[in-house]
């Protein structure tokens, strides 16, 4: 860059100006504008504007240290060059006053003139005036005054001869006259026109060449410093890694040692605790034992005493009770005996009355019952007689028509019946040849003179059990029984009275009735069939399920009338558990159709 030679009387020809300031303070913009305008001035000799790295907030530790390093580097580089001055830019709208470190101040001193005031070749340019809100220009001025007068970096520059100028990037926006502001080229020219500061660095008369050499040196030095910095960094990193590794190993070792120590301490502590606990437990146990023994002895003593007292009390009580009982017993005995006697005589009296009354009642009931039965019987006999009479009439009528010989033969049987009925005691007995079952039992008539047939029926079950049913001369149907092959009589050949049982007798049983009997379920069920005097089919049943007694059955109510001469046959069918009865219901004709079951 050229510097105007025509105005050389107040402008330095070999000019190198450092542009410094916070980050974003407008350094690059300033240089751009200045260079654009200064380039058109032919009279200017070479001038160089060097922008230093910016720093947002110089008070922030990290940025400040970074700035320090950069500025220090720059100072070193600039020491070799001829520095005409420093333009320091500051954003007026920034609320803080810049506070660079003492290191920076020292560097400024080195860059600037020696002695006091050392900052005569420094211009502080406040920027961003156009950004102040409308009507706050005065605030900007107050801020500028503050920068100049209050302690701080810019105050330091101001008191050491630095000039304060203002710049507005967009000057058309300014609310006041432009005259109060300076443009970048005018600021540069003003700085160049100021008397040269007596810098510690000697100025080189061969300005232009020197500048180029200085730039090359600057680049080389910068490169060297970069390399050095990289190397330093690398070395630092390696040292840090080694240190970190050493630290890690030390820490691991310390940890391991600590852990081992802790383990041992814990084990010792645990052992101590265990021993202490066992000792305490042993002591406790001993104390408890002693206490228990004491308590036991005390209890025993108390119990013995209580027992003795109790026993004494009991003895006394028993003696009292015994005495009382003795007195009471004699009296009570007498009383009870008397009461019993009275009770017995009352009961006896009552019984006598009851019996008399009961007897009278029973007698009355019996009489009434007898009268009813007699009445019934009379009716039935009347009816039967009428029927018989009818039958007889029919028979007589038939006989009248029958030849004499046949008539005699036909009448023989009825006569025998009449004879039997006329005899009061026909001396009927049964001879039973009872052999062990299942051999058949044969019963034969054994009496004389000839008597009417004695009807009987037999049932048997198992090996040696049988029952014989027959009708005696009074009309009773009797039962003779054989258990385990033994007839219950000493005379095995005859069924005697004592081993017989009259199971049922009704005067309405037809004398000389046919008999049939069936049994099943091992003799637990027995049925006996006979005819009434009206030739009605009747059934008597014996069942272990209904109290092991004989009783009439419902067949009576059916009223099955059979022929007067009909026989009865019965079987029990185990397949369908039914009884099949066979009898003659009408005049016999030998066709199967007349046989009903
Ligand atoms: N309104 C206004 N804007 C400005 C002014 N000065 C600079 N600027 C703007 O501010 C922004 C930052 O300016 P720069 O010149 O880059 O600032 P710098 O100091 O070089 O920044 P670094 O290099 O990052 O430290 C740019 O957009 C400029 O146009 C000013 O006075 N007024
Ligand atoms: Mg910049």
What is the C-level CATH assignment of the domain at 15-205? Answer: Alpha Beta
CATH hierarchy: architecture of the domain at 15-205: 3-Layer(aba) Sandwich
Low-confidence stretches: 1-13, 57-61, 197-214, 406-449, 489-500, 592-597
Number of strands: 19
Distance between the termini: 158 Å
SS content category: alpha+beta
C-alpha geometry: elongated
Listed once per kind, the bound small molecules are:
guanosine-5'-triphosphate, magnesium ion
In the sheet with the most strands, the strands line up as 2-1-3-4-5
CATH superfamily of the domain at 15-205: P-loop containing nucleotide triphosphate hydrolases
Helical percent range? 40-55%
Q: Main beta sheet: strand number and arrangement?
A: 5 strands, parallel
Coiled coil: 219-257, 285-402
Keywords: Coiled coil
Biased composition (Low complexity): 431-444
Pfam families: Fungal_lectin
Secondary structure elements and their pairing?
Elements: E1 15-21, H1 27-38, E2 47-51, H2 61-79, E3 85-91, H3 102-111, E4 122-127, H4 137-149, H5 153-159, E5 163-166, H6 184-193, H7 207-401, H8 404-422, E6 430-433, E7 442-445, E8 456-461, E9 465-471, E10 477-483, E11 486-487, E12 500-504, E13 516-520, E14 525-531, E15 537-543, E16 549-552, H9 555-558, E17 568-573, E18 578-584, E19 595-596
Parallel strand pairs: 1-2, 1-3, 3-4, 4-5
Antiparallel strand pairs: 6-7, 8-9, 9-10, 10-11, 10-12, 13-14, 14-15, 15-16, 17-18, 18-19
Helix pairs in contact: 1-6, 2-3, 4-5
The chain binds guanosine-5'-triphosphate and magnesium ion.
């Amino acid at each position: 860059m050229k510097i105007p030679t025509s105005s050389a009387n107040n402008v330095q020809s070999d000019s190198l100006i450092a542009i410094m300031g916070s980050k974003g303070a407008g350094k690059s913009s300033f240089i751009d504008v200045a260079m654009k305008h200064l380039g058109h001035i032919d009279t200017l000799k070479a001038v160089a504007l060097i922008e230093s790295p910016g720093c947002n907030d110089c008070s922030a530790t990290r940025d400040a240290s970074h700035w320090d390093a950069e500025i220090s580097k720059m100072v070193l580089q600039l020491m070799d060059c001829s520095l005409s001055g420093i333009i320091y830019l500051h954003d007026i709208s920034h609320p803080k006053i810049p506070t660079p470190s003492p290191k920076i101040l020292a560097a400024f001193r080195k860059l600037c003139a020696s002695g006091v005031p050392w900052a005569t070749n420094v211009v502080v340019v406040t920027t961003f005036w156009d950004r102040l809100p409308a009507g706050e220009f005065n605030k900007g001025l107050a801020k500028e005054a503050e920068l100049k007068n209050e302690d701080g970096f810019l105050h330091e520059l101001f008191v050491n001869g630095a000039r304060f100028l203002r710049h507005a990037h967009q000057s058309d926006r300014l609310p006041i006259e432009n005259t109060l502001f300076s443009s970048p080229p005018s600021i540069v020219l003003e700085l160049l026109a100021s008397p040269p500061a007596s810098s510690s660095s000697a100025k080189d008369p061969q300005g232009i060449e020197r500048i180029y050499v200085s730039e090359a040196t600057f680049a080389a030095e910068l490169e060297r410093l970069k390399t050095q910095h990289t190397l330093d960094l690398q070395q630092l990193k390696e040292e840090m890694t080694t240190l970190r590794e050493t630290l890690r190993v030390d820490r691991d070792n310390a940890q391991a040692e600590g852990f081992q120590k802790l383990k041992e301490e814990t084990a010792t502590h645990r052992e101590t605790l265990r021993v202490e606990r066992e000792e305490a437990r042993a002591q406790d146990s001993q104390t408890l034992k002693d206490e228990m023994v004491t308590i036991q002895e005390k209890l025993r003593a108390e119990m013995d005493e209580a027992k003795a007292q109790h026993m004494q009390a009991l003895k006394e009580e028993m003696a009292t009770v015994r005495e009382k009982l003795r007195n009471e017993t004699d009296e009570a005995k007498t009383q009870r005996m008397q009461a019993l006697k009275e009770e017995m005589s009352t009961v006896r009296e009552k019984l006598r009355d009851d019996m008399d009354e009961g007897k009278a009642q029973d007698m009355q009931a019996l009489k009434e019952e007898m009268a009813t039965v007699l009445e019934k019987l009379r009716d039935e006999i009347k009816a039967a007689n009428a029927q018989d009479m009818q039958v007889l009439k029919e028979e007589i009528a038939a006989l009248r028509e029958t030849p004499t010989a046949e008539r005699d033969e036909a009448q023989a049987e009825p006569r025998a019946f009449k004879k039997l009925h006329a005899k009061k005691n026909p001396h009927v007995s049964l001879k039973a040849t009872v052999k062990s079952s299942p051999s058949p039992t044969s019963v034969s008539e054994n009496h004389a003179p000839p008597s009417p047939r004695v009807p009987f029926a037999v049932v048997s079950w198992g090996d040696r059990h049988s029952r014989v049913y027959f009708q005696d001369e009074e009309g009773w149907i009797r039962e003779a029984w054989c258990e385990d092959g033994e007839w219950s009589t000493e005379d095995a050949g005859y069924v005697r009275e004592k081993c017989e049982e009259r199971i049922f007798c009704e005067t309405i049983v037809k004398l000389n009735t046919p008999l049939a009997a069936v049994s099943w379920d091992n003799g637990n069920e027995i049925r006996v069939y006979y005819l009434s005097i009206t030739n009605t089919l009747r059934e008597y049943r014996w069942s272990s399920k209904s109290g092991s007694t004989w009783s009439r059955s419902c067949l009576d109510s059916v009223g099955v009338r059979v022929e007067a001469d009909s026989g009865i046959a019965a079987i029990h069918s185990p397949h369908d558990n039914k009884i099949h009865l066979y009898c003659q219901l009408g005049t016999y004709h030998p066709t199967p159709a007349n046989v009903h079951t």
